[in-house]
Design brief:
The chain has 2 helices and no strands. The chain has about 100 residues and is an all-alpha fold.
Length: about 100
């Protein structure tokens, strides 16, 4: 069961999406280089394995970019309800 969000998460909490973006980009470079290198070396099995990894990393990269563009209020699923907004006297942050 996924815990319900309370809205009391730390203000300084950071999303791991940017790190996942850079790791996916790094994996994309290596998977594409491996696919080309093994194809040129005449190793079709290894080239196919790197090609499959290339596709998986590309899909992950697209999903990460989609989640980054959804903004900071992205909810991870329908079973996690949005938290109640803060109704205090604080000004809303801009930017």
């Amino acid at each position: 069961m996924t815990p319900m969000r309370t809205g009391s998460e730390p203000v300084t909490a950071r999303s791991p999406l940017r790190m996942r973006f850079w790791l996916s980009l790094w994996g994309l470079i290596w998977a594409s280089a491996g696919t080309v290198a093994f194809a040129l070396a005449g190793r079709p099995g290894w080239a196919a394995a790197c090609g499959v990894l290339w596709v998986i990393v590309t899909v992950d990269l697209v999903m990460v970019l989609r989640h980054i563009h959804q903004g900071p209020h992205y909810q991870p699923g329908r079973d996690v309800p949005p938290y109640e907004p803060d109704h205090g006297n604080r000004r809303p942050r801009t930017g």
